[in-house]
Amino acid sequence: MSTVASKIPSGSIPTVAATANSRATIGSRLERLPMTGYQRRLFAIIATAWFFDSMDLGIMTFVLGSIKTEFGLTAMQTGLLASSSFLGMFLGAATAGMLADKFGRKPVFQLSMIFWGVGSLMCGLSHSANELMAYRVLLGFGMGMEFPIGLAMVSEIVPAKSRGRYVAILEGFWPIGFIAAGVAAYFFLPVIGWRGIFIALAVPSVFVFVVRRNIPESPRWLEDAGRHDVADTVMSGFEQKVLRASGMKSLPAVQPGMASESAVGRGAAFAELWKGVYAKRTAMLWALWLFALLGYYGLTTWLGALLQQAGYEVTKSVLYTVYISVAGIPGFIFSAWLLEKWGRKPTCVLMLVGSAAAAYMYGQAAATQAPIAQLISAGLCMQFFMFGMWSVLYAYTPELYPTRSRATGAGFASSIGRIGSLIGPYIVGIVLPVAGQAGVFSLGAACFVAAAIVVVLFGIETKGQSLEQLSH
Length: 472
Fold this sequence. Notes:
By secondary structure, the chain is mainly alpha-helical. The chain has 18 helices and no strands.
């Protein structure tokens, strides 16, 4: 198989020989590139949306108690409202994944901003709990569209040696956004109320929509779609920008012999999730996402409201929740490091088991009305492991599918997870009056243990392998 010239001189535009227009060629050209400021800028643009999405979703943790009081909601009604965003995310993730595999990553990525911005604005203009619930579904639809596409794009432009770390760092913007939401709620909730906060969070969608125009389409997707000339043009521009950013006179030689992904008819992406080796991977991922997100969102969505129920005033409950969330930052950093040093599978199991143990300890501390220092310590451990878990989920999932069905696979895994997100807060509203906070957190711990067992039994290791190698 012919390849790109072994060296690319500085200042020239690399080209691909006519006989080299294959998936292996694009994969080989991408895999041999060094990580430079250019790829990091693309990554930062994608990560910016992750940050603001996290703020929009996380803000409910901090304003849920205020909304519950204003509308006079019962525990069950409050849980249903908290779950409404996840219904939209379930629909958005599945829809966007299939659209991105069919029409490309970039246009669907941009479309998600419209749903996100309009949804957040209308949440702030809601005058009833039913209106708010409806617009949280719309907002969730836009946020759900983000995840599978962002994961696919980062996975497809970052070389295998750095892929796990960067996808894990991408997820690290989630705890940072969550903490920023808490800080915003602490300072602005008493001033502009929860409606004003939602309106303010609609503004960044315009900014992100504009800066995303600088992201190129995934060259891996273009070539997989049969658009070889466009793929070569995009890839050549990508290489040239990497070359300039690296300060090198030439790029490393393309390594020959990378296997191409086997061809199947396009439009069969969902069906492929349940064929051959992918069937086992899909079943494992769906169970993992379902249990992990049921446990996570069942607990974190209620953290602020549970503290208020325990007798803490609104501002203190917000502040304590922010303190607890700070541990998410070292959690995702540690997970990002461990992913490349230890591997995806063992890191995932560690984070899930750690989440289970910490959640149980937090529930016991809350149930016995332990001193606030003990409660916060348990909460710090819980958030450390849970945000580390998120990093593994997002790094691991897109690696298990080929380019032609990567966004679809990641999208449906995320959608199944959103079923857990949807029913988790609602179940808490039912369990809380019966079993108390100890029962709620024990249930969350059981979900994390179930997810860990699934990974131990059915997970595979992907560390250090190219996407093309993993597609076989």
